[in-house]
Amino acid sequence: MKTKHWIVFILLGAIWSSSFLWIKIGVQDIGPMSLVAFRMLFGAITAVAIGVYQKVEWPRDWKTWGIFAVLGPTSLAIPIFFISWGEQTIDSAVASILNATTPLFTILIAQFLLQDDKMTPQKVLGLLIGFAGVVVLMSEDLLASAQSSVIGQAAVILASLFYGGSAVYGRKLTQHVQGTVRGAMFLITSTIFMWIVGPLTEKPFEFPSLPLTWVAILWLGVLGSGLAVIMLWYLIHEVGPTRASLVTYLFPIGGVILGVIFLNEQLTWQLLVGTILIVGSLAVVNWQPVRRVVPKEA
């Protein structure tokens, strides 16, 4: 990846590192459907505002809108709902580990659908090293929450499958759409989907009653969706869905570091070893050997 890609990658990881914490806060006050609906709404408003500022051209053909009508909910609304619903019965640490299976699903699906993101021994090794790093990093929290709901864990794994599949199909089917518009369209269709399905399936469909819940929604909507989705789809189309999905390995690092800085939590060997493994996995997946040019004989 180029320097500009690494900047977006790290910034995206930093924004999303706290998402599991804010989701956990949000579902203490309102239901998961309500939380996702508000999150998608504020995310769509943010992305559309960015598009209007940039004076982008919005798609006008029904075929493109049809693609986003399917991929919007499957890439955002549905998996985010599964995570939010799952976090009602499992800890955010467990959720972050299970969400780190996204690159594994992505590389398997990309193998069959994309020509420029095939599975290689180098990629597989890098993904496995990174996943091992996530497990080591969160091992203490994982042992402490060993009694977590199996259904809640399955919901987060299912969300990872949706993330991986949608990233691959999105890369394949939305090449013709401008970058900012691409992210905004995913959010627009997800918002429409959630505000139709949410009130019908979750009763009561609640509005936040606590100020902290509104803070969580604004963070998840404006930063965690509006800006983050635009950056994610920029990476998916620039470096491929497998490399872009590696950002999920950064979530536990960010969460643990925030705990050390702001909550005075202890700096453990798990943080050091896990971080080294995750950084090593990024290096392995993105390493390209230098090709030596052999001068031709005169």
Protein architecture, described:
- This protein is 76% helix and 0% strand.
- The two termini are 36 Å apart.
- The chain has helices spanning 3-17, 19-26, 32-54, 62-86, 92-99, 102-113, 121-137, 139-144, 150-173, 179-201, 211-239, 241-245, 250-262, 269-286.
- The protein has one domain (3-119, 148-248).
- The chain has 298 residues and is mostly helical.
- The model has no long low-confidence stretch (mean pLDDT 84).
- It is globular and about 50 Å long.
- 49% of the residues are buried.
Please describe the structure with a list of short key phrases separated by commas or semicolons.
14 helices; mainly alpha; 298 residues
In short:
The protein is an all-alpha fold and 298 residues long.
Beta-strand content estimate: under 5%
Large-scale geometry: globular
Q: List low-pLDDT spans.
A: none
**Count of individual domains:** 1
What integer value in Å does the Rg equal? 19 Å
The secondary-structure class comes to: mainly alpha
Could you spell the SSE succession in H and E letters?
HHHHHHHHHHHHHH
**Count of extended strands:** 0
Mean pLDDT across all residues, rounded? 84
The N- to C-terminal Cα distance equals: 36 Å
Number of helices: 14
- Helical fraction equals over 70%
Largest sheet: none
